[in-house]
Amino acid sequence: MRSFRLGSALGIEIRIDPSWFVIFFLILWTFSRTVFPLDYPGMAEWTYYAMGLVGALLFFSSLLAHELSHSVVARRRGVPVEGITLFIFGGMARTRMESRSPGEEFVIAGVGPLASVLIGLVFGAIWWLGDRLGWTPAVTGVAEYLGFLNVMLAVFNLLPGFPLDGGRLLRSAVWKATGNMGKATRVASIAGTILALVGIGVGLWRAYSGEWLNGLWLALIGWFLLNASRSSYRQFTVVHALESVPALEAMTRWPETVPPDMPLQQLVAEHFLHRHFQAYPVVSPDGHALGLVTLEQVRAVPESEWRERAVADVMTPARPALEVRPDESMARVLDRLTVSGGGRLLVVRDGRLEGIITPADVAGWLKRAQQLKRI
Fold first, then answer.
1. 3-state DSSP assignment of residue 159
2. Sheet holding 352-357, edge to edge
3. Mean pLDDT over residues 146-151, rounded?
4. Cβ neighbours of residue 172 under 8 Å, at least 6 residues apart?
5. Cα dihedral across residues 149, 151, 156, 157: positive or negative
6. How far apart (Å, rounded) are the C-alpha atoms in residues 345 and 308?
7. Rounded distance between C-alpha atoms, residue 196 and residue 183, angstroms
8. Which CATH class is domain 247-371?
9. pLDDT for residue 63 is more than 60
């Protein structure tokens, strides 16, 4: 299942993965049925559920603030941020490029744990003040526990394993020392793998010893970190391999095109119903790229108007965001595909169409390159 949009904060899109609901209700149940009843006995059952709901919502708000701190600092330093996704093991800021220097990496990675510590101190101050003013434990208890959790979140994120913040701090240090980002990423990824395996081992041992719930959680976190470390390193190596590969190696050369004055009725009859393509480049008689017309754009027009309306009336006009050069790197192409919205780009040289490129084209090139051991 795909994530869905929750909204935006500070101009940054917030999305929720369906797996987030699993952890949300598990934390809500743990707070309401275990943590708060044991720490603050004697209150009504509905009070514990209210404390659990408020505590769970504030905890995930803290996670969101942690990721927002990364995103805001990254954006101010010129690193494009696509948004933030909340999922079963927390949150993740999605950026379209890596840091450009060890110092930039250090600052972007370090601000997250710092934000969590500051949030923890705020909740700690609320608990301290409320305890002295005689506030109800339903308020001070939630504040105390959230203060503790946010500090623990900062400590966990500072563990030196990629892609945790601590792993990125380690990468920035190795990068600074060696001048080689690839080597630094490899070292941080190995550290992340070792850390994950230790977490899995300790978790299984604790589960075997009788602490099955805590042990299971630790093992699951270790398993998640193991997969995240490996996939993050793989993504890094692929993107950097694509930096030296031009778009012309993956593009579909000289694709089938349509003229701007073709009626939509003819476009549907001769192209969309007889070909498997979902879009066609629109070119002038002398071969200049004019835009792109898609099946979705045609479907948006009532069928009764297909005879009168032409391709030029519905197409997306050619513009820089829709075009790449044949010699542009595929890493840049991937970045442009992400923001284009149409899922395809025109490959243009001096205004003339030479090809079209889609995520499937890039994926196909990657598969062939892997089979040939080029990456």
1. coil
2. 252-253, 352-357, 345-349, 323-324
3. 94
4. 99, 102, 103, 105, 106, 109, 184
5. positive
6. 28
7. 20
8. alpha beta
9. yes
In the block, tokens 């309401």 appear at 32
For the cut 70, the answer to whether the pLDDT of residue 88 exceeds it is no
Of the candidates 11, 316, 66, 176, the residue with the CA atom closest to the CA atom of residue 58: 66
Residue found by looking up tokens 């009843």 in the block: 37
Q: Which active-site residues does the annotation give?
A: 67
Residues in the chain: 375
Burial letters for 347-373: b for 16+ Cβ neighbours within 10 Å, e otherwise?
Answer: bbeeeebbbbbbeebbeebbeebeeee
Sign of CA dihedral 23, 214, 188, 369: negative
- C-alpha 251/C-alpha 357 separation (Å) is 5
Q: Is the pTM of this model over 0.85?
A: no
User: What pLDDT does 331 receive?
Assistant: 82
pLDDT number for residue 147: 95
Q: What is the pLDDT of residue 339?
A: 63
Q: Given the DSSP bridges, would you call strands 4-9 and 81-87 parallel, antiparallel or unpaired?
A: unpaired
- Choose among 214, 163, 149: nearest CA to 191: 163
Helix (H) or strand (E) holding 165: helix 165-178
**Cβ atoms of 260 and 312 closer than 8 Å:** yes
Residue 362 is which amino acid? Answer: V
Higher pLDDT, 88 or 169: 169
> Where are the domains positioned within the chain?
4-242, 247-371
pLDDT in tens, 4-50: 788 888 888 888 888 788 888 888 998 998 889 988 898 889 999 99
User: Which tokens go with 201?
Assistant: 């081992």
- Does residue 124 contact residue 150 with C-beta atoms inside 8 Å? no
